[in-house]
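re: that chain from earlier
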Amino acid sequence: MFLFSTKKSFYGKRESTIFFVLISVVILLLLLSFNFVFANGGAGGGSDGGSGAGDGDAAAEASSGSGSSSTAPGTGAAAENAGEIGGGDVIFSFSAFIGGIPEEFCGPNYGRTCFSRANSCNEKNRGTMQCNETCSARVPAERAGSCTGALPENSTRRAPSQKALTQPLRPAPTPPSPSLSSSNASIIGGNSATLTFSCVDSTSSSGVNFSTGGAPSGTVVVSPLVTTQFIVICSNGGQNFVNVNVFWPVLDISANPTRVKSGNVSLITWSTLGDDDILSCTVSGPNFFASGKSGSKTTAPITEESTYTLTCPTTENTMSESATVTLVPAFEEF
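^ sequence. v structure.
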């Protein structure tokens, strides 16, 4: 009987101890959960059931749990002094029983720099985000005079926003055009022309279809074989052009008619093109001579096939063209 009572008492004590430990763990977890919920959501003015009065100074009065709302002096201070990152700064907490809130239960902005709301001078105080996502900084006191002067310690002032002043873009000034001219607007193929160019407010130049040598002004001799456009481009962007037309001397001579009976005559006609380079012209043939760059003349009676030649010497060489008159065959009877 004694053994049974001892055994029962032993098992009773052990079960009571285990039960007490379990109850303690549950209470501890409840306190942690209760503390975390109020730390993150307890900020705000007024509460019911004794959950909080609206600022840090009213926490003691609200802890009575009488079920009625109590408002301490300065109610709403948390809302006025809340930082730009967090909300209010009222914490209804049981952390005193467990030595504070572990950091892992704090909000994501815990420990970051924050600022209070601005006063009428647009000044703010700098602070640190608390575990309950509130800023430790308070709204700076209002200035008695103007908003100018030195700022209080840990304060900052925002400059008033200004709209960017925009002005229409002005077009870039047009550079002055250089001068460019040719000694001859038209030349005979193989001849030359002299180009004269001059840039304004430029230190160098370049040419298209001719070389300026980089000089801002000068003269250049060109000998184009075909009609060509020459362009000068100055270092300041100005440019100009000139065309030089090229002609090759063309000689033309003809006989009318080109076939005659023996003893008849023919009219010889000749002309030249590009005669600026032609010095003179002559036409010669059997019993025939004429001169001039163009003209016409009747031959003497033609008794045999005859060739008439137009010859024109130029500054480069001598050119010639010919026309031939033939006889109509005579038929003889046997």
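The longest strand covers residues 318-327.
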